[in-house]
Each structure stands twice: as C-alpha cells, then as structure tokens.
Model the fold of this input.
Amino acid sequence: MHVLVLGGTTEARRLAESLHARGERVTTSLAGRVAAPRLPRGEVRIGGFGGTEGLASWLREHQVDVLIDATHPFAGTISFNAARAADHAHVPLLALRRPGWVPVAGDDWHRVNSLAQAAEVLPSLGRRVFLTTGRMGLASFARLDGLWFLVRSVDPPEPPHPARMRVLLDRGPFTLDGERALLAEHAVDVLVTKDSGAAATSPKLAAAREAGLPVVVISRPPVPEGLPTATTVDEALVWVTELGQAPGAV
Done:
C-alpha cells in the first residue's frame, strides 16, 4: 500500500513514521514554506502539485492507494484540492484534523475570522502585541504604527510588516514557564493567535489567562465536508488498517 500524506504538522510526521515502521510505503508532501522542516521517515517530496489536476495526476502516476490530508488547519486551499483530486483519481481520502482550542474559565478571547479582522480589533485591546500567527500575513498589521509587536516565527518574516517589531525565531514545543517569562519580559498586553489546536503551542494561552490578557483568536477557515475524519494519529492508523483489510483492498 502506498500512502501519500499531505504534511507539515506534528501529526503528519508521527503518522508517516508509524506507517513506515509497520512496513507501509509512505510519501510525505511538504509545501516548502519552512526553510528547514523536520523531515519524517519514508519518502519526502517538497513543493506544490499545481492544483487539483496536478495532484490527481500525481496520485495516478505514483500509484497512490490512500491519501491523507494532515495539513495545518490554516493551510487553506490544499484541503479542497485534495478532496477534488481524490475524487478524480478514485483514491480514498482521510482528513486528519486536530481539534481546535476551547476557552476555559478565566479566558478573555476575542474571536475573528481573518488576520485583517484581528488588526481591526487590536488597537482597542492593547499596545504591546505578542503575534504568533507565523511570518505570512504580517502585511495585515503593517499600518498599526501605534502598536509594538513581538513576532514569533520559524523563519524570518519579509516586508511588508509592522514598523515597530521585534522578531523571535523559535519553534515549538513551548513551555508554560517560558511563555510566562516571555510575556513579562516584553510587557505584552495582548496575544494574537490562530486556532491551530496544537498542544505544542497551547502554553501561551495558559500564560495569557494567568496574566489576565485578552487573546485575539483567529478562527479556522472552512474545510471540505462529508469526508472520513480522524482527530488523532491513532484513529488515522486504525482507518488505514481497516481500509487495507477491506474486500478488494490492495
């Protein structure tokens, strides 16, 4: 069985490693947006497919038996391309989607639907912003000259970006103690984050809650509906196993 994993997440890497360990042929596709990504075991390809038809052609050409969309919740277009390509190539598709974050007592969350909306509400919430939305999309905040930004990303951001900005190059997982210290050191008074749902980056939410800080949470974009979905790597492995045991499976 040849499994193509559309990756870029911790779950995708763990899934590829588990499939490889049990003897499956697994290829992980990465978009190439990070300069030095953590590579999983198995085969790896980097770069786009050229849309729906390009992905469908790749599935047929490389005799892919199973497609798993384990991309980041904010990857956007790729999930819809994957759904259409799997249908065109007649390849079973599973969406591996980690659950989003859920507010708890003490949280002061302000949900928005985009980076642009986040930029609109920020001036009313604080002056020193901890921006953890990645290096892409900083142009949305470039006009906010009255605010200061601490921007954390894996790779250095490119302009346009806020004029008053300090960049912190780092990669999770992060600790609660580390996030507490970061908020205090930079006198942060508002946090901006995407609802990625990752445990590796959730300590910032706890630190903000403890400090009584408002948090601007950017909601996830829409995804294809009606697909088989797993929320954990273990669930995905069970799905692949059951698919392989089905009558007529490869």
The longest strand covers residues 25-30. The mean pLDDT is 94. The helical segments are 10-21, 51-61, 77-89, 115-121, 176-185, 203-211, 233-245.
